[in-house]
Specification:
57 residues, alpha+beta, three-stranded antiparallel sheet, 1 helix, 3 strands
Length: 57
Amino acid sequence: QQGCPSIYMRVISVCHELIAWYERKGYYQTGEHQPFEESRFETASIPFDFIVMQKEL
């Protein structure tokens, strides 16, 4: 914790239950979205991106 004021993480935007769980644990959505970049080996069955969540320590 020393020198680390907060935690950031990316959560898949379509996982609403997971986002709600993290919010109950004190995380909040920063408003930032990051794209999911598909590789030639990975294909998403539904389109999604990541939301960035943060928690103050």
